[in-house]
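Sample intake sheet
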Amino acid sequence: MIGEKDIMASHKEHITPCFSGSAPESDTVSNTSLCTPRNERCSRRTLLKGTAAGSALATLGGSMLAACNLTAVGNGVLTSPTGKLHEYWIQADSFQHNLVPTGYDGMTGNHYTAKQTSFWAIGYRAYTPGWQKPLDGNKDLGLNTGIPGPIIRAEVGDTIRIHFRNQDTHYKFAHSMHAHGVFYTLQNDGGWSAAVPELSSAVEVGQSYTYEWLARPDSLGTWLYHDHSKPQGPKGLMELGAELGLFGMIAITDEKTAPVDQEIFLFFHDLYHDDVPSLSQDFDCFNGYAFVGNTPKFTVRVGDRVRWRIAALGKEFHSFHLHGHRWPFQGRFDDALVLGPATTRTFEYVEDNPGTWLYHCHVTDHMMGGMTGLYAVTR
């Protein structure tokens, strides 16, 4: 594969842009696609020109929706005639992060210093085209503060294009983006192995790569994405980047997906003192934080339809429990759901029980390690 700039330089005189606008050029390696708008044929070269130029894209929830519908994408993947292109500019950033910013565990009453609970994290953040500046968080994108990464959204039949750049200037590890639940070719996998060292799986610091994923009918639901690059650190650990914060969630909907009043995204993940020595102990976290008063506090109202999308990554098994609530799940009612590594659960209900309730992992070691939080229901 070759960079977009090289392609454009070779064919500049033959290109008619299907998009307008401008953004800084980059040396992104690309698996970009053939794009056919309803009223204008765009060649592969045209799309490459439009992609590098940033294109005239509408910002919606942090995704960039292209003005043309797709009929085919690169590497032989076909979309529906009405499928849309959701385009994201995502960067892996390294930064100092405190898992317990209040210094207090609101359930046990234990106290911590910042030195005990801080480490150099790595997180995915969504940016404006060309990675010019981070996007503000919102309801569709999430907080976009790095852990977890931005919510990636699409509907069945849509294509997701990720312009990924590695700016891990602290560890200087190679990173990638590997998605679950969506369709992709080998060049868009992002999963590293010594036997198949794909370029998409080891994007070095300062380099970038463009991934394309397709949301098919069997992609409907909640999925996750994460760093799946080569072994890193003194111990040569697989997915150390994911342990340090490189993970996020994908939500795929269709025309039958009902609207909800509140949509909650909750990610279970763990950090180990043996892998991250600056931490004073192992920590079990929700969305980058540990313990009541630090983990997210979710607020809903009686009568709201509430949808939870929960996911887990790492090497632990978890049991999600929400006090005072039950919900239909796989033909029965439940109030605790088990998640293993790289699994997700989606469930919803109409809220009818006011109060401030505890949510937590029911594995006692994990609960004591920080997997506790509050869910407030107002009238």
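Comment: The CA atoms of residues 60 and 288 lie 25 Å apart. The first helix runs from residue 4 to 11.
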